[in-house]
Specification:
Blueprint (H helix, E strand, L loop, with lengths): L3 E5 L9 E6 L6 E2 L4 E6 L4 E5 L4 E6 L6 E2 L4 E7 L1 H6 L16 E2 L7 H4 L20 H6 L4 H10 L17 H12 L32 H16 L2 E9 L1 H16 L6 H15 L5 E3 L6 E3 L5 E3 L1 E3 L2 E3 L2 E2 L7 H16 L13 E5 L18 E5 L3 E6 L4 E14 L5 H16 L7
Parallel strand pairs: 13-17, 17-18
Antiparallel strand pairs: 1-8, 2-4, 2-7, 3-6, 4-5, 5-9, 6-8, 10-20, 11-12, 13-16, 14-15, 18-20, 19-20
The protein binds oxidized coenzyme A.
Length: about 450
Amino acid sequence: MADKIEIKVPDIGDFENVEIIDVLVKAGDTVEKETPLITLETDKAAMDIPSPAAGKIVELKVGNGDKVSEGSAIAVLEAAAEEKTETKKPDEKKPEEKKPQAQKEEAKPAKAEETKPAESKSEPARPSADLPAVNEETFSKAHASPSVRKFARELGVDLGKVTGSGVKGRITHDDVKGFVKSVMRGGAVAGGGAGLPQVRAVDFAKFGDIETKPLNRIKKISGPHLHASWVNVPHVTQHDEADITDLETMRKALKSDAEKVGAKLTPLTFVIKACAQALQEFPDFNSSLSADGESQVFKKYCHIGFAVDTPNGLVVPVVRDADKKSIFDIGKDLGELSEKARDGKLKAADMQGGCFSISSLGSIGGTYFTPIVNAPEVAILGVSKAQMKPVWNGKKFMPRLMLPLSLSYDHRIIDGAAAARFTSFLAEVLAERRNLVL
Ligand code: CAO
């Protein structure tokens, strides 16, 4: 019978209760000796825990987010035939044998000779001659585990240009693969390169006094996300306006009742409700392009995100099941989520799962703008300040309260005609207040 080895966390120095940020194998996988199994992240560095032997993983005992210390069980390995004669179970080791040490990530930028792909060995072919040269400084600062770094080195990918989708923006194997795919398809690369001209660096201090402040956490996360969307999604913005004169009368009449039950009735509340109806009517707007770009994923749920301007930057909490909620329920969610956002108390789950986003600048001012699609969503609605305007009713000009709408969409999925139908539908729903009662 094949030997089974319980693989445990080896000596990882003084660290305890260290979070697993990446589980790199699954039950049934065949691994080689030294294949990384999991990645741990301490507040100082990330480290991979390699397999002490070759064989098949028959049971995985950990998951992403688990906390482990030295001796914690990671997996059960059925040792490969050739390993069985050589590999002793950890507790059968001879005294001089050392436990496998975790592969620690260098805290400092790696030295060029240590990190550049070994030219004398057989270097894997670069996926494209157009891949940008690796910038060692940004590569070393990228938030990625050693195995992802090694993988990126093998492919010649500059991690500094890859947008991380993992916890705290960490770059995963899939992000590296996605980056290579995007370059192969001739897609744009975030942060410049692959044909994108770089913005030249300017020494501002040469022209006067300056003060440099680090970007806050939210901006560090949202910036690359917005940039990735901007360079990957072919954006078009459709503008329209909705006559909300009657709706505004109804809103004012209901506002104090709503406040009594903790609901915030602003124009945005009604816009969320109207968008939920429009998403049901036009399912393309409630879809996403699959990761490989080969298919369209339709969502049967309707969660709508709305941008909140907080002292620390932009966050987008999500109103769940907006299609099933009354105006008062949406108003309650809006009030609670905006407050949590401003107090910095939103949880990750509050900001996940959105199908469509709304960015409302209506309380501030302005007429129209071009919001950036919150990819992989395919559309976002910008709402500006409603204004009284003279509107021709066929006989005379009437004073009507007009709400400016700006719908940016991903032109790979949405056609211009569909976008115009979507905003016209929204305008009709908002103009006819009975559509939004409840
Ligand atoms: N037209 C006219 N008045 C509007 C309006 C509009 N489109 N939208 C809101 N108002 C009014 C509200 O009715 C309210 O007045 P009353 O108290 O008299 O009803 C007042 O403006 C303040 O509204 P609010 O800001 O408290 O509430 P909201 O629902 O409109 O917005 C929120 C909530 C969280 C979206 C908003 O506070 C916010 O953060 N907006 C900024 C979003 C942003 O930054 N987007 C850009 C993202 S891209 O960089």
